[in-house]
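Worked example

This section walks through a single chain of length 279. The input is the sequence exactly as stored; nothing has been trimmed or padded.
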Amino acid sequence: MPDGAAEDTGAAGSTGQGSARPAASVPLAPRVPLLPALAAVYRAQLSRAKVARLPLLFVATFQSIGIMVLMRGVVDAEARSSEAHAVVAGSTVLIVAFVALNLLAQYFGQLRATGGLDHYATLPVPPAAVVLGAAGAYASFTVPGTVVTAVTGSLLFELPLTHLWILVAVVPLSGAALAGLGAVLGLLAPRPELATLCGQLGMSAALLLGVLPAERMPGAVAFARDLLPSTYGVEALMETFTPSPDWAAVLADLGVCAGVGVPALAAATWAYRRAALRS
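Given that input, the structure is written out below as tokens.
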């Protein structure tokens, strides 16, 4: 064999040995702290919701106002005090259930089915930031509709507007509980169709159990109403329509919303981790 060929062979062998060496590991980006990551995810999700979900917000608001107009024709004038409170409060919180429960369940169900969780898994953000950011964005998205519905219903049923500032607490607290539940449904459902179905069933429960006074319901239905997190947001808003609101009862109802919202969002974070590992 010629000397040049031997030199080429030796060079090739040395090159092959060099390529077999393990490449140096590249350090991963440091994990972003929770609060900055949460703010970034919240802004991104809110921008996305404005573009993709704005028509649905109009639908939800129109639906709630339509329910109030319909109920205005059948509410007994002599018992309007309790029935009107339930109709207006239930229709207002229904928008929160439509967006934070129904749409969020659909979003996480589609995200899991299309492999979108892989995108978030590559980002150096805590799982809690993804869940809380999405939940907060969807809950914030309900604010315009709830304000319009509450004001319209109060004028329609001749209820006082004095204490509608309570929506500042009702919307985020009931929204947190419903958003956590919606995220769990979307992340644990094996198919996006089931996530959509569960979200719509939950919204229907909030509709049927929220716009009617509790005293008109049978015992079993009233028990199911007590299990629904949005019920306590409805009760808090109903109490503020009375001439002399019982603020201790309002705080107790809001405390229940907060008490349900924390474990619901914690369960949603666990469901996100579980779904991300299986995707």
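What to look for: The mean pLDDT is 82.
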